[in-house]
Design a protein that fits this description.
By secondary structure, the protein is an alpha/beta fold. It is 35% helix and 24% strand. The protein has 11 helices and 13 strands. The strands form 3 sheets. It has a 9-stranded mixed β-sheet, with helices on both faces. The longest helix is centred in the last third of the chain and has 19 residues. Bound molecules: 1-O-phosphono-alpha-D-glucopyranose.
């Protein structure tokens, strides 16, 4: 059985939900406290044992490449000022594993973005991590999936239950058998109408996939939202190979929409030793002032 060594991080989306902030800056560079969202994803991949990462970028995404490169002038400046802790932080992102880049020339959807990385992947199982989902867990989410991949020797998708009225925002799986947190997948459907959702188990942006998936992505069939969907290709894969879904442990944060982004920032700041006290004091004050207004 081949080990999972390579990961694809699609980062070519237009980031329209965050306009105008994303007009000249990739949404993947928006920071949660002091770290760009994409760095959390890259760190998870590395902590899970991934050795090579390919980021699928698009127009206006150069800042991502610069972020994971050396910043000579900045590093010199910090060094001369004796700001060694900050220097280490800046250097961390450039010392990470080998990161490669490929451009998705047209925004044709997630399935197409993954397909763009096919030559880099070759004939090996690989991981996909989506930047809109940050997961905080004792064992990194991708590592949990890798452990299941080693057991099942099959593709494994990370899932979590969501409220029924949110199923239309996700890829949803229908399981045929379950053993603890592991499900064998019978069907998958991308963003079904609420009443059509076959369950409430939603795909949460983490995948281990067999290279056979490229056979189906190559067909470039258009799916939900007029885009080439990864979920549709996995559905076809599941008809010829076993596909599993794993309800991973940990908290998943949705940083792909405004409210989720704000809540993630608050949560992460509350876990930061310098920020938690003043932030908690501030939140308590704001909430008690709101309560006072409500009682007027
Ligand atoms: C993508 C996938 C979807 C998955 C979701 C998780 O959708 O297509 O299956 O449930 O990510 O965040 P997107 O949110 O990019 O439209």
């Amino acid at each position: 059985m081949k080990r999972v060594k390579k990961a694809i991080i699609p980062a070519a989306g237009l980031g329209t939900r965050f306009l105008p902030a994303t007009k000249a800056m990739p949404k993947e560079m928006l920071p949660i406290v002091d770290k760009p969202t994409i760095q959390y994803i890259v760190e998870e991949a590395i902590e899970s044992g991934i050795e090579d990462i390919i980021i699928v970028t698009g127009k206006g995404k150069r800042a991502i490449e610069d972020h994971f490169d050396h910043a000579f002038e900045l590093e010199q400046n910090l060094f001369h000022k004796g700001k060694i802790e900050l220097l280490k932080k800046v250097q961390e992102s450039s010392k990470m594993v080998d990161i490669h880049y490929i451009r998705q020339k047209e925004p044709k959807g997630l399935g197409h973005a993954v397909w763009c990385a096919r030559n880099f992947i070759g004939n090996e199982p690989f991981a996909v991590l989506l930047g809109d989902d940050i997961v905080q867990a004792k064992t990194p989410c991708l590592k949990q999936l890798m452990e299941q991949y080693e057991k099942t020797k099959s593709s494994v998708i990370g899932v979590k239950p969501v409220p029924k009225n949110e199923t239309h925002r996700y890829g949803i799986i229908k399981a045929k058998a379950a053993s603890g947190r592991l499900y064998e997948v019978e069907h998958l459907v991308e963003k079904p109408e609420i009443e059509m959702a076959p369950s409430n188990l939603a795909i949460m942006g983490r995948y281990i996939l067999s290279p056979e998936i490229f056979t189906f992505l190559a067909k470039k069939e258009i799916g939900a939202g007029g885009e080439i969907q990864l979920t549709d290709a996995i559905e076809q894969l599941s008809q010829i190979e076993r596909v599993f879904a794993y309800h991973f442990e940990g908290t998943r944060y949705d940083v792909g929409e405004k409210l989720g982004f704000i809540l993630t920032t608050i949560d992460f700041a509350l876990k930061n030793s310098d920020l938690k006290r003043p932030l908690r004091d501030y939140l308590e004050r704001v909430l008690s002032e709101e309560a006072a207004i409500d009682n007027l």
